[in-house]
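Colleagues,

Please find the record for the two-part complex below.
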Amino acid sequence: MNGFTAIIRRELKLAMRQGSDAAIALMFFVLVVALFPLGVGPEPGILERISGGVVWIGALLAAMLSLDRLFQADHEDGALDLLVMAPWPLEALVLAKCLAHWMVTGLPIMLISPLLGLLLHMNTDAYLTLLAAMALGTPVLSLIGAVGASLVLGARRAGVLVSLLVLPLTVPVLIFGVSAVEAAAIGQDAGPHLMLLGALLLAAIPLCPWAAAAALRQAVT
Amino acid sequence: MENARKSVFDGAAVSCVRGARWVFAGLDFTLSSGDALVLVGPNGSGKSSLLRLMAGLSAPASGKILWDGADIGADRQSHGARAHYVGHATGVKPALTTAEDLTFWFTFRLRDDPDAERRALEHFGLTERASFPVRFLSSGQKRRLALARLLAAPAPLWLLDEPTVGLDVAGQSALESAIAEHRDGGGIVVLASHVAVALGGSEREIDLADYRASHADDAGDIWSEFGA
């Protein structure tokens, strides 16, 4: 699939050369999580209890930061017109965009999350589960985010609007992500929670590109 | 060129509504391989809107646009493959180099012919700028880069919206020779321009002012409800 990889390569090149978007999302994630020990106090029991939720909420908020740029730049400079005229399915194009977006924001967030778990005294048994849950959950954030990002094209204050649209839709990811980590932390089986996260991902892979492609076609008319 | 077969691109009773106002109505055109159509008309008469309809980016309010008898809206992928649209915004990325930007678009359009890319850069005088970041190009050079896509990924239908904006004399003559060659090869060109562009042969002209909708009230002029 020639065009698919062409999109991913282009997005990665653009992200690397004007890389502030991805770096900002990651820095934001670290800062938000680092604020909690300062605000709640350093008592290990409390921090350990809330660590899963804090890391996940931080990841959600950080992912929102970079979403509005997903299609906005292409919309502004006219490239979106040409992308919509792709000689191959527009849904695949959206999927490629999401994959690139995940590699630039979701993947770094996932990789740094155990470090932030350490900051919050997270039970070490939960680290692997946290990584697995993030690996399944962060791509869902990029996919749902693509729907929001394509819907707000052309709107004023699109960045805020996209967060308002997308955050409620990410609640299932938050719930199952946190319960997987908490189950692992108290020595229970995290399997069912991870499977539900996987199911969310499997549902999002076909549905979100389909919805986002429809919104993009509308955006260029 | 590859298609010896004649293609027909035509529109019947095409109408366009933007912002709840009729822009034009009842427009017919028929173009076959090798033809060129020039759209003229005052600002706001719908030249760009018609080109976007022809590109399949938006759908006509009424009427049909057909390629070889098939509605272009029914199979957007095939129409995307056969049409090149160059609009006001060039869609070039400042962070890429000239060659990277061009390579992306022809790979994206599923072409794999480095020779065509080299020739496209050469034709529009960008060979020496190939490894330059696009952000250092002048606006005329960015326009040339956008036009170079036409040659890098051949497609039978060219839709050009004010393609000469920012071009110098050499750039315009490069565009003119590209158009002439394209028509010789059986391509179709539709062009909106306020500047006279030589199209290498006879051409048709549509003055969109002639199609200004007379039944302007039929669209339900919503603005009047707000007293505007």
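Residues 2-219 of chain A form one domain.

Comments are welcome before we finalize the supplementary table.
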